[in-house]
Predict the 3D structure of the following.
Amino acid sequence: MRIADAALALVEQTGDLQMVQLAKTLGVAPSSLYSHVDGRAEVIDLARLRMLERMEPQPPVTQWREGVERLLRQLTAGYTRHKRMLPLIFGSTISEERTIALYEPVFAALLEAGFIPEQLRLIAALIDFQAMGLAHGFPEPAMTENIRKNLPAYTASIDHSQYSPESATAFSAQVLIRGLASMLREEHG
Amino acid sequence: MRIADAALALVEQTGDLQMVQLAKTLGVAPSSLYSHVDGRAEVIDLARLRMLERMEPQPPVTQWREGVERLLRQLTAGYTRHKRMLPLIFGSTISEERTIALYEPVFAALLEAGFIPEQLRLIAALIDFQAMGLAHGFPEPAMTENIRKNLPAYTASIDHSQYSPESATAFSAQVLIRGLASMLREEHG
């Protein structure tokens, strides 16, 4: 859909989504744009869907651990390609059924494993927040003689850093899955 | 420091930090601004420090679980008040020793507990990423007849949602701490 592609491109370029500017990019009058969409919120929702549609299709999920890790990796990859969309999509309602469908198999696997419905939205947020951060990346470290002298634990963390986008993603997946498994055990313990 | 306060206010207002605009806000010539700071990166670093200095002072940390939870809550509170700073601070080097000092007691407690130096930066990123997401908040859910018919697990997640900023923060803290405890046990197991 032309509107979604143009919106994604505009956000990449300007960091924001103004309807008048979007109409201009599309070469139509604002009134004509509003005959296709209800408003800015719908355009953001369509752009989010387009962003997620560009992700690789995945085989069906049957196991919750696999589902959580795969969702984290999918979202991280999608968000990394469209960082400037993040403030917009985290502030606007998801109403596109096809976007929500992305979460359905993971939610189904979690319920099947024994997680309770009350936890699902919290788990989705946990994964989404981690993906958002991984897409932004962690600030580069600095090291000075003073830091080395006064902050030994921080200095050790830099001297022995194994941080990379890939290691951080793998570490996040591990901690989240182990933490969730521990909550599941307690519930049934 | 006037520069840091003005920079924070400018980012809140415009979502960006332009040096020429900052000089204008301060009522000085850009050349005069550059006699106080080296450049934009240093201003961002100072603004980040000012943002974190506004957080409540905390008693000393002795236990890693407490340290992780408190750091998560501190960062979430600070980031929530200054959301528009997030894209800037996650893209720029931390060199201010006083900012780094915030992480030092948690890092020391983690090392004391048996975590290895290689894990510290990954753990800091994990916490920071959750704080960033919690500050943004999770998109509002939508519910339609079609979604209710086609996506039963998602529907259950909305019908039984216990998501709130506070419950999401508590859930993140729990999952992170339990996940990290599990990695620590394995290392020493």
